[in-house]
Design brief:
Low-confidence stretches: 1-17
Order of helices and strands: HEEEEEEEEEEEEEEE
Strand order of the largest sheet: 1-3-5-7-9-11-15
Structural class: mainly beta
Number of domains: 1
Mean pLDDT: 88
Length: 256
């Protein structure tokens, strides 16, 4: 019943009721795409559980946040910055909040880490990892092998050369890391925070196509028919460039 309640609230531009959400241990919960903002009085992600937030959600305000051991909150990539405000938090060891970019494909380039603005009020924590790394670039396509040449006859035709292999495709560039801004109380232990800002790795070059074999030599009664030449291997591709590193700002506030 509780899950039905908070899912109904997602349709509002702002959810203002006494909404609570819990992700049970060792499970994954994916919120459906809906409104841009959500307000929860309590959010609990239990041990080894994961909560995935859709790209359409831009703001999440939580009065009480509880993350269990190795619990994850994953935020889908988007060009829109994500704002997460928490009044009170208890974060166990291995807590993660991730807004990583998506890896590239043959049809889509890699996306940058999502800009994340995190404001933490009263917080008890062992450690917290914030991850806004960029997506990795896709590998280049492999070149096709050249076709083999045809054999010649003893009394007609000549063996043909094998075709050259096609060139390999270049790897795509990795995407940039995201922009991370964190606002915390003055007594927040900065050493408990781990940030990951790296740009995505560039895609590997594709494999060049091999040259096709030449037409075979035929042993004839009076003479041998010459064979065709081996085709050349295709041109090598280039690996993609790594994405630029993101940025991190930690601001201590007296009024949180």
């Amino acid at each position: 019943m509780r899950n039905l309640c908070w899912m109904a609230l997602l349709g509002c531009s702002w959810a203002v009721a006494d909404a609570q959400m819990k992700v049970e241990a060792n499970t994954l919960l994916r919120l459906p795409a809906s409104g841009a903002s959500l307000l929860l009085t309590r959010l609990e992600v239990a041990d080894n559980a994961t909560l995935l937030l859709p790209a359409s959600l831009n703001e999440l305000h939580v009065a009480e946040l509880h993350l269990g051991r190795d619990a994850h909150i994953g935020i889908a990539p988007s060009a829109q910055a994500f704002n997460l405000q928490v009044q009170s938090a208890e974060l166990a060891a291995g807590s993660h909040i991730s807004a990583r970019g998506a890896a590239g494909t043959s049809k889509q380039p890699a996306t940058a880490g999502r800009a994340l603005n995190l404001r933490l009020g009263s917080v008890q924590l062992s450690d917290l990892t914030l991850d806004v790394r960029g997506g990795a670039g896709a590998a280049g396509h492999n070149g096709k092998d050249g076709l083999a040449g045809e054999s010649g006859g003893c009394f007609w035709g000549q063996a043909t050369d094998g075709e050259n292999g096609q060139p390999a495709g270049d790897g795509q560039s990795g995407a940039a890391g995201g922009q991370l801004r964190v606002e915390v109380p003055e007594d927040f232990p900065a050493q408990a925070l781990t940030v990951k800002l790296q740009g995505g790795a560039g895609g590997l070059a594709g494999v060049a196509g091999n040259g096709g074999s030449g037409g075979a030599i035929n042993s004839c009664l009076v003479y041998d028919a010459a064979g065709g030449s081996q085709g050349r291997i295709g041109a090598a591709g280039k690996s993609g460039d790594s994405g630029a590193e993101g940025s991190f700002k930690l601001r201590r506030e007296t009024d949180i």
